[in-house]
Amino acid sequence: MTAETAATAHRPRRSGRTRRPLLYIVASLGLLVMSAPFLWMALSAFKTKEDLTSTTPVWIPSRWTLENFTALLDQLDMPQYFLNSLIVAVLVTVSNLLFCSMLGYALAKLDFSGRSKVFGLVLAALMVPGNLMILPLYVLMNGLGLIDTYAGLVLPFAAGAFGVFLMRQFMLSVPDELLEAARLDGAGEWYIFWRIVMPLVKPALATLTIFTFLGSWNNFIWPLIATNDPGKYTLPVALATFANDPNRTVGGGNGMLMAGSLLVVLPVLAVFAVLQRHFTQGIATAGLK
Amino acid sequence: MSLTTGPAASAAAVDKSPRGGGSSGSARRPRRSLSRHNLTGWLFSTPFLVLFGVFMLFPIVATLLMSFTDFGARDVTRPLEADFVGLDNYTRLFQDDKFLTSLFNTAYFVVVGVPATIVLGLLAAVLLNNGIDRARTVFRIGFYAPVVTTIVAVAVVWRFVLDPSDGLIASLASEVGLTAPDFLGSETWAMPSLIAMAVWRNLGTVMVLCIAGLQAIPAEVREAARLDGASGWQELRRVTVPLLRPTLLYATVITTIGYLNVFEEPFVMTQGGPSDATLTVSLDMYREGFNFFHMGYASAMAYVLFVVIMGITVLQLRLLKDNTR
């Protein structure tokens, strides 16, 4: 139904005009269903204890308040968790951008012995479930003394197969003639990679940035395992610990949880909103075949 | 820089690459140029391969080795002292009712969740790409927002949505005189609730992939179909879906892999309950490994899941690719 009307609307001359409002109604209903939980979260963050514990759900706060945020900042070291999440996400993203691009460049543009084997390895790695490696990874990190360190949180995600795949696909579309001309002018491979290819693949870099940053920011299971010291908790781990804390007061506690969740979600939504256009373009150009 | 290659060397390399044009100067110094590009290629690959080797390949092999041992809490600090037990862990697994339940639950999650996610994601993409041109960004961000939200926040909100006494669905139901079930507390409803939550959360990924795919389809193709008098439904079935096949294949494969690994939803929402109704393989593995420190046993579990995932992925790639022709 939805799809039919969606496709029909593309014929403005025949029936588009009459169908278009219907499409907006369908899309708006979809938007409402998709975002209702968010609206609830965002609004609840500003509610008083009375509104939060009311037996009939209150959507719009009867009195807007910031007390959930202040209570949260009082009880939890939010700036520290925020900083931890940010440091880990930035390091993971930067290292993925660099290392995945380098290998992507080699796979797309450099002819070296073993190239097809390396690419095969990357494709196989795409299929390996992340949870498979977690037990020995824990033993390894424990042995290296990296539990409760940034290195322990970053290293396992510092270079992912998806990034290589994406960058390779995208770099295939960079014309060989361009690289050839640069080589004839005496440019080295590093210069070509850094100064010619990287600027040309910005949409792919934007895509990879979003995917990696979000993945790291929202990553839950590994930080849960790799940290014991609350000083090294990332935001999701800290919030989950707080959510499961039996001492959390029921009414106000929920408000604090909503406030905390809102603080976690807003930065990534902002990043996505800014990079959204390049993001889709990046996926489209890479083809993902 | 140390990675510099001479112009002649690169000409030869381009000639060898499948996409390169036939440059005539290449035949002269093939050996030297190959070795030079060899070095460059490997230098560019090394950082990734080192990280990959230490943090992925090694753990994969180690998991396999651990699965043949009775690796337990005491072995975490002295891994080499774990005792070899052969196939014991694997034979035990298939007599373990709890594990069989978790396999069944995981299959349930995949069989219902994957088609729902793919179909709804595709429909959302078609709707937002072709039907909507005003406020497009708002719609896209709204549909994609659940993807970028941390599971903890999602859990908080969905607990409210599903709460049997004063939750969103319960109060909507009571308005029309119905009583909502205790979603998360009921053995029948807990799993469908988690699936609904996962579909809600992952639909945006499929949508973004499909929008990207749709934008890669030349507008003329769709126009031609319309001029030939195809209805909207026909256009979707006969033109859009076949041309989106590579995207849909990719989306199906990653969604299936993700759902076979499903861990976060049951972990934060139900802890596997009520009475193991939402215990998935990954959650079972996590518990055996990190709560009970039966790491050898948990490793065997991880490997069974790995083999299942590999099998299903290869099967999907075959089935869906063959249908193209």
TrEMBL record, chain A:
Coiled-coil stretches: none
The reply on keyword Oxidoreductase is: no
According to UniProt, the name of this protein is Carbohydrate ABC transporter permease
The answer to keyword Translocase applying to this record is no
InterPro entries xrefs: MetI-like (IPR000515), MetI-like_sf (IPR035906)
Which CDD domains is this protein grouped with? Answer: TM_PBP2
Please give the biological process terms from Gene Ontology that the record holds.
transmembrane transport
Give the UniProt family note: Belongs to the binding-protein-dependent transport system permease family.
What stretches pass through the bilayer?
Answer: 21-43, 81-106, 118-138, 150-171, 256-275
Which cellular compartments is it found in? Cell membrane
Q: Alphabetically list the UniProt keywords.
A: Cell membrane, Membrane, Transmembrane, Transmembrane helix, Transport
* Topology in the lipid bilayer: Multi-pass membrane protein
UniProtKB/TrEMBL annotation, chain B:
Sequence intervals crossing the membrane: 39-62, 107-129, 141-161, 194-217, 243-262, 292-315
What PANTHER family does the annotation carry?
Answer: ABC TRANSPORTER PERMEASE PROTEIN, INNER MEMBRANE ABC TRANSPORTER PERMEASE PROTEIN YCJO
Region (Disordered) residue ranges read 1-32
Q: Which Pfam families does the record match to this protein?
A: BPD_transp_1
Regarding the membrane, this protein is recorded as: Multi-pass membrane protein
Q: Which InterPro entries match?
A: ABC_transporter_permease (IPR051393), MetI-like (IPR000515), MetI-like_sf (IPR035906)
GO cellular component annotations of the record? plasma membrane
Q: Which organism is it from?
A: Streptomyces griseoviridis
Q: What is its main location?
A: membrane
Can you supply a Gene Ontology BP term from the record?
transmembrane transport
Q: Give the family from UniProt.
A: Belongs to the binding-protein-dependent transport system permease family.
Pinpoint the ABC transmembrane type-1 domain residues.
103-316
The protein's superkingdom reads Bacteria
State what protein this is by name.
Answer: Sugar ABC transporter permease
Write out the entry's keywords from A to Z.
Answer: Cell membrane, Membrane, Transmembrane, Transmembrane helix, Transport
Q: Where in the cell is it found?
A: Cell membrane
